[in-house]
Amino acid sequence: MSILALLTDFGWQDPYVGIVKGVLLSINPNLSIIDLTHSIPPQDIQTAAFFLGEASLYYPRDTIFMAVVDPEVGSQRAALACRIGNHYFVGPDNGIFTLALQRARQENKAAICHQITEKGLCLAKISRTFHARDIFAPVAAHLSLGMPLEKVGPPKFDPVLLSWTSPRISGLTIEGEVQYIDGFGNLITNIHENHLSQLRIKPLYVTINERRIPILSAYSQAEVLQPLAILGGYDLLEISVRNGNAALLLGVQKGCKVTVTG
């Protein structure tokens, strides 16, 4: 049984996700479909790329990831099917596969993309606004049945890559930013555990919106409704509030600057 993980910005209010699943199952009734998330902020390709790259680390070999956050749907942007590391990825060529591609290249793993041009794999009528249904779902389903990747179309040697902002380390200071705010209001930064280890000083503090916050090792070390910083599940520095919402308490939005010092 093939596994297919869906990631979109479609939400649950409309029937879009259900329709996509209908197409997938019409081609491969034995497909096991997992909803990775459909709550990506609308048109936020960078957040989609981040979660896709992180989540794919924990899926079995040969999982197919169909990722659709596609503000340029209907334009001349290409449609891709890729083999990246041990997984397949299907979606628009708009940078949504950036993190997965970069990690594969850093680890000397395969990263092969093909542009989807074979119309016979798609639905008979392709709309201007619903390529998830008309192109990506049929192609992903055919891949799940064992179709060779090259059948979708010619190689694509230059897939779009997003520019990723990296923290700046100067002396005993790290300057980064908030790259995502999760459903708990936690502020996930772009500062990795490896960046923190370069400072070689303790204790460490985060400054955000002129608020100085300690970096702790557990939520329980902070008082209830007090802010703290902690290394989260992605090995990235997160700013949280114990039993509260850091984004609301601190008045922070995505892109807000963060500084780490001793």
Folded structure, characterized:
Helices cover 21% and strands 29% of the residues. The termini are far apart. The strands form two sheets. Strands 7, 8, 9, 10, 11, 12, 13 and 14 form an eight-stranded antiparallel sheet that branches. Strands 2-1-3-5-4-6 form a six-stranded mixed sheet, with helices on both faces. The protein is α+β, with helices and mostly antiparallel strands and 262 residues long. It is elongated. The chain has two domains: 150 residues, S-adenosyl-l-methionine hydroxide adenosyltransferase, N-terminal (Rossmann fold), CATH 3.40.50; 94 residues, Bacterial fluorinating enzyme like (Elongation Factor Tu (Ef-tu), domain 3). A hairpin with a 2-residue loop joins strand 7 and strand 8.
